[in-house]
Specification:
alpha+beta, six-stranded antiparallel beta sheet, four-stranded mixed beta sheet, 20% strand, elongated
Length: 362
């Protein structure tokens, strides 16, 4: 009897061991089966975010390979600020977050995408970015570095704020097209964006640029929002048009309150000025401005020639007023001054600063 019981006990132990082995194999097989790649998690995040947007009555985002590339670069760099500042991420809205695995290796499973999107949705800043109504495209990047998983989602939305701190919202018209310079000029001259007053903390250059952008797009004219950085001081915002006959043209419509025109005769009296201007931008050079009705070329070399003409004009005016010329010399000089004034107009604009960076957002 004793021997029989011992045999039965051994049989029970053997069966229990087999069950443990089989159960362990099932668990291991389940973990292996549920493991997913970073690319699959990216796809899942994209799908989950679109579902949330549609649940909230918003347009689904398209997947943009360029934005995917930016998102993957940022995640792989562990959110490097240098990379962010050296790419379009500098002015694009993006969500970034990471998950640390203490005491274990990072793992991506079938539920990872849903878990991460749910986490973002509970965070007000991340949720607001996901639900930006004007966003139309996105990119997602996931990278495992060390014991962390880095997640990034980039949106085709400008990461800029107006004077009151509210996000700049650009309204895009899918039917907008490039038009000729004369069409751009006519539209800008008839638009009253430049009549608004620049008010710090309320309505600043970003607001001017966004307003003109949205009005031009609504009128069917494809328009870019442009941000410029300088060696010193705050940056600046303006617009750009890729004209069909004259190429890229920068337009600065920032109104009164930001910068005052300088009269040509240097007397300093109040003058009436139109605040629609053509901007001349080249990295490493001063940000130049010429009144819209006086700009006949859009190359930076034209602006350099223009500034030299103004210097000549002001030198001639100073000489004319010096009291050292004869009547005949004054007549000759007066004619030269009048000719230059016809070309240059009654006032000029000071350059804003030395340009270090230009970002053009179509």
């Amino acid at each position: 009897m004793l021997i029989k019981r011992l045999k039965n006990k051994r049989a029970v132990l053997l069966i229990s061991s087999l069950l443990i082995i089989v159960f362990g194999v099932v668990i291991l097989s389940s973990c292996i089966a549920s493991a997913v790649t970073a690319a699959e998690v990216e796809d899942g995040i994209y799908t989950q975010v679109n579902k949330l947007r549609q649940d909230n009555g918003l347009t689904a985002l398209t997947r943009d390979p360029t934005l995917d590339g930016l998102a993957r670069q940022l995640s792989a760099s562990q959110f490097s600020k240098d990379l962010e500042n050296a790419t379009e991420l500098h002015y694009l809205l993006h969500n970034s977050w990471w998950v640390s695995y203490t005491g274990s290796s990072p793992r991506l499973v079938q539920d990872t995408a849903q878990e991460q999107v749910e986490y973002c949705f509970k965070n007000s800043d991340l949720r607001d970015a996901m639900l930006r109504s004007e966003a139309r495209a996105t990119g997602v990047g996931v990278a495992i570095v060390g014991n962390k998983v880095y997640y990034t989602q980039v949106f085709d939305v400008l990461n800029a704020a107006g004077g009151n701190g509210s996000p700049i919202r650009l309204q895009e018209n899918p039917q907008a097209v490039d038009v000729s310079w004369e069409q751009v000029k006519e539209f800008v001259m008839n638009d009253d964006t430049n009549s608004h007053t620049y008010i710090p903390g309320s309505f600043v250059c970003a607001d001017f640029a966004a307003l003109l952008h949205n009005r031009a797009e609504a009128a069917g004219i494809k328009t870019a929002y442009v941000s410029v950085d300088f060696t010193e001081g705050p940056g600046h915002a303006l617009d750009a048009f890729n004209t069909t006959d004259r190429g890229l043209v920068y337009i600065d419509c920032t109104g009164p309150g930001f910068q005052n025109p300088i009269p040509g005769d240097s007397v300093g009296q109040d003058i009436y000025a139109e605040y629609d201007k053509v901007a001349y931008i080249e990295v490493g050079q001063p940000y130049g401005l010429i009144s819209l009705d006086k700009a006949t070329s859009f190359d930076y070399g034209f602006y350099e020639q223009w500034t030299q003409q103004w210097a000549d004009y002001e030198a001639k005016v100073a000489l004319y007023n010096s009291g050292h010329l004869t009547y005949k010399e004054l007549q000759v000089l007066r004619s030269q001054i009048d000719s230059l004034r016809t070309i240059l107009g009654d006032y000029r604009w000071e350059p804003l600063g030395i340009v270090t960076r230009v970002d053009v957002h179509w």
